[in-house]
Amino acid sequence: MKPAKTRQILTAPHSWRDMPWGDYFRDALTQQLQPYLGKLYGFHMLKIGNLSAEINTEHCAISHQVNVGSEGDLLQVLAQATQLPFESKSIDACLLAHTLAWSQDPHRVLREVDRVLIDDGWMIISGFNPFSLLGISKMVPGIQRKAPWSGRMFSQMRLLDWLNLLNYEVMFRTRFQVVPWHQQGGKVISAHLPALGCLNIVVARKRTFPLTPTKAKKSLSKAQLRPAVNATRQFRATNDQDAT
């Protein structure tokens, strides 16, 4: 398995339209997210990256939504995803639509998002599936210079492992197919072969306490005060001697 951090310079597309079938990817992703965006609540939401900024989130109950990125026309705050200019535990939800795909250090991005999220805050991650037909086509010579193949593709299990280390509870995850001649996505592959779907979605929630208590913490919680051996007997013997 390749390390998450890379020295390779990655240039993210400024818009979904900068990649083949980008409009279809954006619309399909927006449609899949709608049921879960409606469940979010709070005061502040960050949409990190240019691709996140183009996702329609108007049905989300969080009214104050801020687009954050290094450069772009739709952004309100110019900043790197690894250095967000927000206080710790001040954001209710973060959307990372293919943000990790063009990040040199995705671990650092996730830790920074975790820092600004409140307890029980929401993190929504999407990306391309490396085991899909789209992911396998990266092996074609010369195609890696173009988006979306120029970005990195992380498997869903790898994303789940990273979130587990940060103590997030996965509320929803899916993989689905999008083909250019069908705007709603490939129903056959999505229904019967979801593992081959080209798009990954993971919706997770930040948890303050460990989801699974460790053995050490279990033993500490069950620890009881042990009675001192022979303490009562020695106390009575001393009193009897004083009385005589």
UniProtKB/TrEMBL annotation:
One of its GO terms (biological process) is methylation. GO terms for molecular function: S-adenosylmethionine-dependent methyltransferase activity. Signal peptide: none annotated. Residues 75-125 form the Methyltransferase type domain. Keywords: Methyltransferase, Transferase. PANTHER family: OS04G0481300 PROTEIN, OSJNBB0011N17.9 PROTEIN. This is SAM-dependent methyltransferase. It comes from Pantoea latae.
